[in-house]
Every structure is written in structure tokens, then in C-alpha cells.
Amino acid sequence: MAQQITDANFQELVNGNKPLMVDxxxxxxxxxxxxxxxxxxxxxxxxxxxxxxxxNVDENDELSxxxxxxxxxxxxxxKNGQIVDKLVGAAPKPLIESKLKGLL
Length: 104
Prior knowledge:
26% strand, alpha/beta
């Protein structure tokens, strides 16, 4: 299951010993609801190698502003605390998974 990421716990997760994939989303966002189940599947499949988390943009405006999130869903991929890749908009599982594999 994807972790809930907040303004409060983000730094701890991004600076952890595993790569991190973050899904910026909102309840009211139709494309986010399409990507959500894919993110959950990947969180389970890669649980031992990658931290997968979700940021509700309505509840965590500090993180959204820090990364300039203007469209959702937006997926950010972090390695060693730095953004290494990004996906904006609804994307199919194979594309998201290929970017996730790029973190390993």
C-alpha cells in the first residue's frame, strides 16, 4: 500500500535509503482516480525496493508549491534525495513502471 506523504514526513522519506516515487493527487481529480490503482499495485510489487507514496495536494500545499505542481496527477521519482524523473497526467502502468525501474 502506498504511504501517505505529508508536509511533515516528506523529508524523512525522500532522504531514506530507498528510492521514492510520489503521486501528487486530489479526491476530485478524475485522472488521479485512474492512476491511483496503478500506484497501489506498484507499491505492493516494489515494496522491498522502492518507497511509493501519495500526496494529497489539497492537504499539503507546502509540498505542492515546493515542486511547482500545477497539474495532477503528477508523479515525481527521487533517488538520493533528488528528482530524477517526472510524469504529468494519467499514464499507463507500463510507462509508470519503466520509470520506477529506472530508479533501481
